[in-house]
Here is the input.
Amino acid sequence: MAKNDSGRIGVYKRALLAGLWRENPTFRLLIGMCPPLAVTTAVKPALTMGLSVIFVLVCSNVVVSLMRNLLKPHLRIIMFTLTISTFVTICDLYLKAFFPDMSEILGAYVPLIIVNCLIIFRAEACASKAGLIVSVLDAIGMGAGFTLALCIIAGIREVLSSGCIFGFRVMPGWFVPWASMSMPVGAFVTLGLFLGLVNTFTRKMKKD
Amino acid sequence: MQQSWLLIVASFFFGLLIAVTSAGLSPRIVQNEINKRNRLVGMLLPEARNFIALDTKIEIEAQPGKKEKVEVYKAVSEANECIGWSFNAAGAGFTGQIVLVVAVDAAFEKIAGIDVLSSSETPGFGDQIKYDYYRSQFKGASTDQLKLVSIGEPKKIDSEIVGITGATVSSTAVVDILNAFMSGIKAQLKEKGLIGNGKK
Here is the structure.
């Protein structure tokens, strides 16, 4: 019994931690790449986007996990889409009502969470097969990994494009802001260099 | 037809969920939008205490062959006198739509100021339309045709607006949008007898 418990805890732990590094959606799996490129001009919108994705991911995983026994193959995708779009709409309305400034900065990218393949991927790969607890932990882990990745890219871009982070000046006075870092090119370059770094690092770890 | 009931039940349930959330939050969302607009126009027309929308929307031809309806607001002071007009003007920028909020004086002769409500112009270049040096050129300028020039003195208030650069689409777009909207609305307001003939 004790062994069984530790086995179950092991599964929970794996579900929670997979998204942070081993299966990080942005750096390792390269899915849901639209937000990391589009909303990472500053940390605040990136964080808002990350938290919105966590909310949608947890809610959709819970609903999909609860109805997983009722799902027939031909209804699967349409049910996922229905569930995801409902929670994204709720999230969008909430941001518009309570964080109008953030909602304006994020613009169309909040409704676009509907087509973020990270969410439908977790519904298909995890929630439609696993139980409620594993699905929730998986959603939190994957969402947190996604948020972390967004914030890292956004942090680099914000510091280089404005010299500030969260609106506080961190770079010395002589620093000349790189305007290109706040443009799409900045997102591609930062993401590309970071992916290269992550790949080199993991390859080295494997060798050792 | 297997399990189709699930789809119908789920659609109904999710629809209900969205309807309830929307009903609960929409007053706040509408209020947020009004607040934002009032805050912006309030800065352009500091004496205004209230903004009253005209009973009917003004129809103008912003682009050739394309009619557009614009909501025009009358700005009134504490003493209930008309001190100006304001409206939103929208048009194509370089990378997307530019929405401007425009305030003019009571006689629709001079611009009281403009601000950018929303835009997606290139950061660092086109989005300089939000900067003070560009926007302040419009404050006090005539509501008749504005002209964009590439070299000039931005501080001088006249009908010549100095662009960000000669080749920046964004600064040209703002002038084009203003010209189209202001001439259209001015003509309509005159027709309705709301401005002109010594009326304030």
Observations:
- The mean pLDDT of chain A is 90.
- Chain A touches chain B through 26 residues (CB under 8 Å).
- The first strand of chain A starts at residue 164 and ends at 165.
